[in-house]
Amino acid sequence: MHDTEQGLDPKAKKELFEANKLAKRLRHHVGDAINDFNMIEQGDRIMVCLSGGKDSYAMLDILLGLQKSAPIDFSIVAVNLDQKQPGFPEHVLPTYLTELGIEYRIVEEDTYSIVKRVVEEGKTTCALCSRLRRGILYRVADELGATKIALGHHRDDILQTLFLNMFYGGKLKGMPPKLVSDDGKHMVIRPLAYCREKDIERYAAIKQFPIIPCNLCGSQPNLQRQVIKEMINDWDKRFPGRVETMFRAMQNVVPSHLADTELFDFAGLKTGAVPEAGGDIAFDKEEFRDPQPEGADALRGISILDSRKPSTIVGEQTCGR
Ligand code: SF4
């Protein structure tokens, strides 16, 4: 995306304007997520997991851009795990990364054969496949001395996971923008946590990333996730702003107004105690405003990446291949 508008016809000028606006919005969202969750700190070495899908390409591209302007130093190493799925175009990522001129590693591990051998025909392969992948990526992070592992899940993935857990798992649980691995050794970050998938799709098309198809393993798409995705997309069309409001709800949890006795001490509640943050709404009729669609406040504030102190800055398909 170039800033120069010279010699462009009005249509091309408008497209350029929109493309720049989109790039800015994504960059701000990534900067905000990094800051809000303190995802990247001075001296970090970020292992960016690159699958060849639109999300991970966009994540790498945006992080490389932010790296140039951030007032702290951090390094990036891109890693692709070639799981030896049939038809995987091995040359695509090395060519792309070499042209970019950045540090990268292609890890070749034939997990595809293991999964095919171990999992019964007709059974879902994703659980074993992703477990194997996770173990390999953690090992590679150690080998590379990476302090953080960046995954390309976005806001739609997070919301879909929330609804999957609610509808099928009976849990109020999403997908965290930042987490520590079970063994306590690795920090995983999701810098695209605030980015909409439709924005990433447009960005990937404009940037012409050399996308590698995600169905090479032959696994069936996760139907439950597909249903949830369609539901959310339908809401997005019919009620602009609802998706944004739902995501904000994940950042505005009021334990005293849910029903988890582990999270809030209902049994120990006593009169005369300090009022709860969510307020006494026992007799009130709640009033809600219409949600605002994305864009209305998307560019609020300035990315903290450009303004924070060095010590704090930078900062399921969900196959994750
Ligand atoms: S969809 Fe992803 S996680 Fe599932 S088997 Fe294929 S590559 Fe593995």
What tags apply to this protein structure?
321 residues, alpha/beta, Rossmann fold, six-stranded mixed sheet, 9 helices, 6 strands, globular, binds iron/sulfur cluster
Low-confidence stretches: 297-317
Helix content range of the residues, please? 40-55%
CATH superfamily: HUPs
Q: C-alpha Rg, in Å?
A: 22 Å
**Biggest β-sheet: count, sense, barrel?**
6 strands, mixed
Strand content: 5-15%
CATH class: Alpha Beta
Going by CATH, the architecture would be 3-Layer(aba) Sandwich
Instruction: Give the domain tally.
Output: 1
Strand order of the largest sheet: 3-2-1-4-6-5
Q: What ions, cofactors and ligands are bound?
A: iron/sulfur cluster
CATH topology (level 3) name: Rossmann fold
Which structural class should the secondary elements be placed in?
alpha/beta
Oligomer: single chain
The separation of the N and C termini measures 28 Å
Instruction: Give the total of beta strands.
Output: 6
The number of helical elements comes to: 9
Strand and helix order: HEHEHEHHEHEEHHH
Q: Give the integer mean of the pLDDT values.
A: 88
Shape estimate: globular
Sequence-ordered SSE layout with sheet pairings:
Elements: H1 10-36, E1 45-49, H2 54-69, E2 75-82, H3 92-100, E3 104-108, H4 111-118, H5 126-144, E4 148-150, H6 155-169, E5 178-180, E6 187-189, H7 197-207, H8 223-238, H9 242-250
Parallel strand pairs: 1-2, 1-4, 2-3, 4-6
Antiparallel strand pairs: 5-6
Bound molecules: iron/sulfur cluster.
Iron/sulfur cluster (SF4) binds at residues 125-126, 129-130, 217, 219, 319, 321.
